[in-house]
Write a structure and sequence with these properties.
heterodimer; A: about 280 residues; mainly beta; DNA Polymerase III, Chain A, domain 2; Proliferating Cell Nuclear Antigen; 2 domains; four-stranded antiparallel β-sheet; about 15% helix; about 40% strand; B: about 325 residues; alpha+beta; nine-stranded antiparallel β-sheet; five-stranded antiparallel β-sheet; 18 strands
Chain lengths: ~280, ~325
């Protein structure tokens, strides 16, 4: 869970909005009206999920504190089952480790009443068909890391003949990274585009979408799906494994315990076009 | 003043593998206090802040042929840089192993000398490590401070005596790794730790800021000293409520210490003790941690080695 939450933590101190429902937990982080991130933790990820509220409670909480706090619950060699409860007597979020008989870790985190409706990122499809491509997470992260060098905004363009995605930065140097669909289906896993589009995005917001993906997730190297919606809004989706603790039985070669997935979505507004 | 001794193999192992790595974490400089029967490593004993660390070894644990004489009742004290001492011991070990041919003559001698270092006009004191092999000898000089005067030694001895007081209630923590792991992560959350110890055998370690309260509680630990039974009606309450009620009854004490200090004291785990006991001094004067070493293969306390830390308290403890 820390992995999933760390993906959306691009600053040391960050505030988040949590929404609870019978489907699971959604955590939303936003910056300057241009970047929004959502982490979906479905109820199936939890060993037990009891929900008894009217409507969907929402509250604000410090993401940094939550992640630091969750980290204290994990100790190597011990199984860590955490019980999360809301609300506490003073509307706090309560956490407690429930494994060992004679010792426990507990925490109460203050929450806030969330500000009026967070900027609703109404993501709409661009045209008659979605404009989307899926690229290996590690390759995407590497490409975006490399684009730091020109020191400019990044132009993302989708071309349909030949089918490819271009990332371009023009600053104190030019850098262009092409993902060709047919050339390397290992990197670019899927591609749908019927109209050519091109939009620019501020580097720091684009970087936030991949910068904090934890190492083990990058190593898993699943696909990250990028979609360009109406007006150039960019949606970046990652999958993060929230796998169970080591199973007691020996894993025979090839057997993968079913891993559970948390969904992370980023929404990035395009830069105002100059022409 | 004269001091000369031979470090035994056991002594070298204890220092190199266990104690010096821990002392290095406790502070850059420490006092070495040698008496007729004992050797002490003392950190922060004379300055007010910082974690006090007191280690005591009976001479035969570390040395053979221990000879000491001084005009101050055969006591000698000086300060030195722990990492320099550690380095000297480590390289002496590698030299000894190189020269070893099963001969007992490769003994590591340690003595107090005065030498004239290069580019100096005054002779300076050193603690010298000498290994005599078959054909050659290796000498390492660890610079030390001027040995303490009579009055300074008295001051040191007095501080040492008052640091030996035992808190009335001590609880035993058997799994310090859990505690260490917790404190390592807690460092990011806040600076001040609340430590509550009860006569029922509960140890609670908690950080409280305006935004978060984060704590770890250990229950039913072994108690040495004043103890009592936890009341049954408290059993299902939260950790916080239980400790508040215990304090109201006078069965528990709470003090605030710095997270950094607490974390530092946990570094004494490097000495590989068998367990650690936590207690709060009367009137909440300090938080005491006593490390217990057993005679290997037995359940008896090894009284020839002792190690304990005293952590300064930030606020007057509540009682």
């Amino acid at each position: 869970m820390v992995d999933a939450l760390s993906c959306v933590r691009w600053k040391r101190h960050q505030d988040a909005l949590i929404e609870l429902s019978e489907h699971g937990i959604v955590l939303i982080v936003e910056e300057s009206g241009c970047l929004q991130a959502k982490v979906y933790l479905q109820r199936e990820l939890f060993t037990k999920y009891e929900y008894g509220a009217q409507g969907r409670p929402r509250f604000g909480i410090s993401l940094g504190l939550l992640v630091d706090c969750l980290n204290t619950f994990s100790s190597p060699g011990h199984s860590n089952t955490i019980e999360i409860k809301y609300p506490g007597p003073d509307m706090e979020l309560l956490l407690k480790s429930v494994d060992t008989l004679n010792s426990c870790i507990y925490s109460e985190i203050r929450t806030r009443i969330p500000e009026t409706v967070a900027w609703d990122y109404n993501f709409e499809q661009a045209g008659s068909a979605p404009l989307t491509f899926t690229v290996k997470s590690a390759a995407l992260k590497e490409a975006i890391d490399d684009l730091e060098w020109p020191g400019s905004s990044v132009q993302i363009s989708l071309h349909n003949s030949p089918p490819c995605v271009t990332f371009r930065g023009e600053g104190h140097g030019d850098l262009q990274i092409d993902f060709m669909y047919y050339a390397n289906t290992d990197l670019l896993l899927a591609f749908h585009c019927d109209t050519e589009v091109s939009y620019g995005y501020k580097y720091k917001f684009l970087k936030a979408t991949t910068a904090n993906i934890p190492g083990n997730v990058v190593r898993e190297n699943r696909g990250s799906k990028l979609t360009i919606g109406r007006g150039g809004m960019l949606k970046v989706q990652h999958l993060v494994s929230v796998s169970k603790a080591l199973a007691p039985q020996v894993e025979s070669a090839g057997y993968q315990p079913p891993s559970r997935i948390a969904y992370i979505e980023f929404f990035v507004k395009p830069e105002e076009s100059s022409d | 003043m004269k001091f000369k001794a031979f470090l035994t193999e056991n002594g070298v192992n204890l220092l190199e593998k266990r104690f010096l790595p821990a002392f290095e974490k406790m502070g850059k400089n420490c006092y070495l206090f040698l008496t007729k029967e004992h050797l002490f490593f003392l950190h922060n004993l004379l300055n007010g802040d910082g974690v006090q660390c007191i280690a005591q070894f009976r001479k035969d644990v570390l040395f053979d042929d221990y000879r000491i004489s001084s005009q101050n009742e055969d006591r000698i004290a000086f300060s030195l840089d722990v990492s320099l001492l550690y380095r000297a011991v480590k390289s002496s070990v590698s030299i000894c192993t190189e020269f070893s041919g099963g001969l007992a003559s490769n003994r590591l001698q340690i003595k107090l000398v005065k030498k004239l270092p290069p580019n100096c006009t005054q002779p300076m004191p050193f603690l010298t490590f000498e290994t005599k092999g078959y054909k050659s000898a290796v000498i390492q000089d660890v610079p030390i401070s001027k040995p303490l005067s009579r009055s300074q030694v008295i001051e040191l001895q007095t501080a040492l005596d008052s640091a030996q007081d035992l808190p009335p209630t001590l609880v035993q923590v058997q799994d310090p790794n859990q505690l260490q792991n917790f404190v390592d992560h807690m460092k990011h959350v806040g600076d001040v730790l609340n430590v509550t110890i009860s006569k029922y055998g509960d140890l609670q370690v908690q950080i409280s800021t305006t935004l978060i309260r984060l704590g770890s509680e250990f229950q039913r630990l072994l108690v040495i000293g004043e103890k009592s039974q936890a009341p049954v009606e408290d059993r299902n309450l939260s950790a916080q409520s239980r400790s508040e009620r215990a304090m109201a009854r006078g069965d528990a004490q709470s003090v605030q210490v710095s997270v950094k200090h607490f974390s530092k004291s946990l570094q004494c785990q490097l000495t590989k003790p068998d367990s650690a006991f936590y207690g709060i001094a009367p009137q909440g004067a300090c938080l005491t941690v006593i490390f217990q070493f057993m005679i290997p293969g037995t359940r008896q306390t090894d009284k020839s080695i002792s190690l304990h830390c005293r952590l300064p308290v930030l606020d007057p403890g509540s009682n």
